Amino acid sequence: MCRTKTGLARAARHRYLGRMNDISPIPVSAQSANNPERVRKPDWIRVKAPTSKGYNETRQLMRDKKLATVCEEAACPNIGECWTKKHATVMILGDVCTRACAFCNVKTGMPRKVDPNEPQNLADACAEMGLEHIVITSVDRDDLPDGGASQFVKVIEALRRTTPNTTIEILTPDFRNKHERAVEMIVTARPDVYNHNLETVPRLYPTIRPGARYYASLRLLESVKRLDPSIFTKSGIMLGLGEERLEVHQVMDDMRSADIDFLTMGQYLQPTPKHAKVMEFVTPAAFNAYAAIARAKGFLQVASSPLTRSSYHAGKDFAEMKAAREAKLAKAALAKA
Fold it and tell me: Is 2 labelled as part of a ligand binding site?
């Protein structure tokens, strides 16, 4: 496994010449022939509006604790299902981002000051909900000297004190130009899963993720494993933005070169007319085909479906990923015996 920066860059730039007979069902066009501006969601994308008692209780708890959630801010299609089950992905460091990515529905502007009570409020909400696994993400905070890394550390520490049996998954920004120190701080706090999404293929970064750099994100994830190989690493991409099949395969190879354990793939959905357009609705069969290829490349866990999001079924996926690692280590030990 290539783990050095030089080796990673070489592997990332090597064009994938994989099998041309991979199963690749034709995506469904996102544009009507009669009206190219109209985007019609296929049946497999449509979800019911949230109305359950559990949904309303989760919503009220987030308000009471003054917590933001990516479920609401990013208009996640799974919010009804997850909140009904008392699952929520908390977004720390406020609800205003310092960047304006073309795919993201989170507000852009000048964020408020960091809330010193946020870590304990989050831990208290976790305890009240009885969560066995929690996912914490954040907006980009390029205005802060450490990009917000110290707040992630404080949240992890508060959770360890308040709900010591809860496993912790974090989904961080790229900490632009300061990721080495930021990642070192967070890794020292020892979350169970470190997630950072690549979001799309390198070719589309200038239009879809202009404030970020593909190889910088890869290096961030690689550095987590270098600092603590026991921490699971995770990353995801959106499909339907105009990427080519072999480009997706190349991203998989780049992730494996960085020793990433868990890959998520989901359908991009346009939040508002001002955001990047959906170029295609990728079929469930195509998502299954991508998942089969990813598993063959060696990921411990793969989640791939139109409605997959980074934290969708995160607790269940974490348990399966942990079991997969234990089985892999047991198999290796048996082979040496």
Answer: no
